[in-house]
Amino acid sequence: MDFIDLKTQYRRLKPSVDERIHRVLEHGQFVMGPECAELEQRLAEYVGARHCLGVASGTDALLIALMALAIGQGDEVITVPFTFFATAEMIALAGATPVFIDIDRRTYNMDPAKLEAAITPRTKAIMPVSLYGQCPDLDAIEDIARRHNLPVIEDAAQSFGATYKGKRSGGLTTIGATSFFPSKPLGCYGDGGALFTNDDELARIMREIRIHGQDRRYHHPRLGMTGRLDSMQAAVLLAKLEIFDDEVAARHRVGVRYAELIAAKFGTGPRANVLAPHVERSNTCVYAQYTVEVEHREVVETRMKALGVPTAVHYPIALHQQPVFAYMRLGAGSFPASEAAARRVISLPMHPYLTDEQQVKVVDALAQAVA
Ligand SMILES: Cc1ncc(COP(=O)(O)O)c(C=O)c1O
Questions:
Q1: Which end of the chain, N or C, is surrounded by fewer C-beta atoms within 10 Å?
Q2: pTM score
């Protein structure tokens, strides 16, 4: 069993993927080719944003967003410690300080109740993460941001295709940043990402940063990078977009089925020995990961591996406890919800082509592993 099955998806899409890749080989515009503009238009429509920019990765998307907002030395950006490293890494790489606030224990996302107390005169942005494929309470976050005149950057790397109150993730905040890493809900065949905004001026600045801060050929009013999505990856994404709605529906089916199987085997509620994910009523989740909580995680991982079921941990160390952030002197106990999640979470195989039989096998193995 695969943790994520990209081969089945390729077999389904082979004619379209192959044809689109060949077209790029034929026209030879490998950088900023026609596929890039077509993809940006499609993605902007899908998300419901005025502007979309294809970029080289989700990590570059975050850095470009921060640079476009002129965030740097002496500035603070509020984010969460329970996320993939890139979120806080890019804030620090931009020269600013990541200021962590704890997560909501049920959704693993930023707890808006903790936000206002963390705002200082140095705060320049808020960067919530839509972890595992569902958005945080973005209205609550946006309300506070508006009162303090702060932009919000959604790290939507794991939530492309998810909705919050009926609107698509990525298009809900000042800037949305997503990733097309191969294992993501919409993934390419290498690294890729996208930025979304409704702000014309920010879109213009981000376009310049994406290409070395250039406003016209060899004329550089600002610093930037080689931050573009290439034509080959855009071609792959255009092919995958054709079936994306269907795949998102399949992800929901798999998610619902896991919840049923887990409830039947372990019961529900905080005392169950396997805790299934909680999706808020305002949200649809794309389950970039299907992540449950268990006691004695290392034992569960080893036993499941022996039973032929791959698992992964997203993420084992909260970011304030990463060596590179030791200078912050945020010891154990600083963010109890994030630390508890980091100790207990384990992700099960999750992709749109998981069969009912395979899901039964996973949950049976989980039952043996936690026993
Ligand atoms: C929450 C989060 N932020 C940022 C990133 C970075 O994306 P990429 O791997 O495309 O650079 C990822 C991807 O793993 C992620 O999960």
A1: C
A2: 0.98
